[in-house]
Amino acid sequence: MAKILIPYGTTEGQTARIAEYISDVLQARGHRADTLDLKHADHDLPEGYDGVIVGASIHAGKHEGFVADFVRRNRDALEHMPAALFSVSLSAHADPEEAQKYVSEFEDATGWHPSTVAVFGGALLYTQYGFLKRMMMKEIVSSQGSADTDTGRDYIYTEWDGVRRFAEEFVAALERNPAPE
Ligand SMILES: Cc1cc2nc3c(=O)[nH]c(=O)nc-3n(C[C@H](O)[C@H](O)[C@H](O)COP(=O)(O)O)c2cc1C
What we know:
By secondary structure, the protein is an alpha/beta fold.
């Protein structure tokens, strides 16, 4: 049994849901998986994990700064263990090139170049946004030519099958190359 940590940053909650889903997939494979909301934790990587999957979401073109801080602070450890990054954005659904650009910028800013990276579609949670955020997101989405402008409902773009495959591939690689006891 491997122990895997899933530290993440989230602003409206979709990255937290994806982190929990990854944790469920890993636990179904017989491993221990702990999620860690970085906003409420101190920033040192806890000891005793065999692998780490970092998650972050995009707002105004950037991942959460506190996730970048966490990665910079623990970069050395992340580089010496199986570690992956997933990035959550609307671009991952609508404009994958843009989503990759956000990842490259995160890598440049942190100096961490994980061997495994995934981008996942996030969510437009109109019903949970305050008035200004709702109007702003509707405006942005509409200016991009999308029809997803009904602010009376939410739109979820996360493809859960892709998330499950990402988690299964990560753990399969870990099972092939377990950390020495
Ligand atoms: C205020 C705001 C700004 C956003 N800016 C971007 C952006 O610049 N690019 C993008 O692809 N997605 C953008 N998004 C979409 C978010 O990445 C998406 O809603 C994601 O699911 C948020 O994840 P979280 O719920 O874990 O915070 C934005 C969303 C909000 C609410």
